[in-house]
Amino acid sequence: MGALDGRVVLVTGGGRNIGRAIAAAAAAAGATVVVLERDRGAGRETVEGIGAAGGKAVEITADLRDPGALGRTFAEALRNLGRLDGLVNNAAVYLREEFLGITGEQWDLVLDTNLKGAFLATQAFGSVVRATGRGSVVNVASVHATVGDAALVPHCAAKAGLLGLTRAAAEALRPLGVRVNAVSPGAVATGKVAWNAPHPAEPLASLLVPSMVADAVVFLLSDAAAGITGAELVVGGGTATELRIPS
Questions:
Q1: Is the pLDDT of residue 91 over 90?
Q2: What pLDDT is stored for residue 21 in this prediction?
Q3: Torsion 93-97-100-105 (CA) sign
Q4: Domain 8-235 belongs to what topology?
Q5: Which of 24, 53, 97, 143 is 20 to 30 A from 155, comparing alpha carbons?
Q6: How many CA atoms lie less than 13 Å away from 128 in the CB half-sphere?
Q7: What pLDDT does 196 receive?
Q8: Looking at residue 239, what is its pLDDT?
Q9: Residue 245 reports pLDDT greater than 50
């Protein structure tokens, strides 16, 4: 028996890197996974990989910044799959820019995707599962929610807001039986390091791999975390910064 047997979990930004690792881990734990991407086909490799491993996954397309599209997409997933049990807000824009050079358009892109998109997705999820009396949302935040970085100002602001959203949404959705938690990764190797790279031999390696974050997400989605809501689980290996290795 897997920790997520029989459940349906939607992962935003599930087409690559940490999102793909989360989707694969949820499928391995028994869930049917819905991979949401903005661009059609961006989640195809994830879906095909899960299928090749014996799991179940489908791809859907929607822009997280469009509440109407999100509502229709979530409702369609519910109709086609019969249920929706979990949501992982993973999709994000990662922008490195000198503070004085950040434009309003860049700020809006990061905040609208990383924070507003998570809010709209959580709202849509709550609306479609309110009748079932249960559900779990996991927001992928960052250690940069609490540790500043001069080159990542919009990212830091969005992730700090995501922790606030986690705590407030946990209270708002608790009467519906929906738990809301966050996982804050530290330094995670992506790009040149495969999404399914094995765990480092060093238990507390300074550079983590995506599957280590995915394992924490699956835990929070599962009944093993049934008493946990409004919490932040830091997966940082003791580091205080997040590293993206360019592809």
A1: yes
A2: 96
A3: negative
A4: Rossmann fold (3.40.50)
A5: 24
A6: 27
A7: 67
A8: 61
A9: no
Which residue bears the tokens 């190797």? Answer: 189
53 pLDDT exceeds 70?
A: yes
Q: What is the CA radius of gyration of the chain?
A: 17
Q: Name 61's bridge partners.
A: 37
Express each pLDDT in 179-227 by its tens digit: 999 999 987 877 655 566 677 766 666 678 899 999 999 999 999 999 9
- Pairwise CA distance, residues 33 & 196, whole Å: 17
Q: Are 11 and 36 in contact (CB under 8 A)?
A: yes
**Length of the chain, in residues:** 247
29 within 8 A of 196, measured Cβ to Cβ: no
Look at residue 240 in the predicted model and tell me its pLDDT: 53
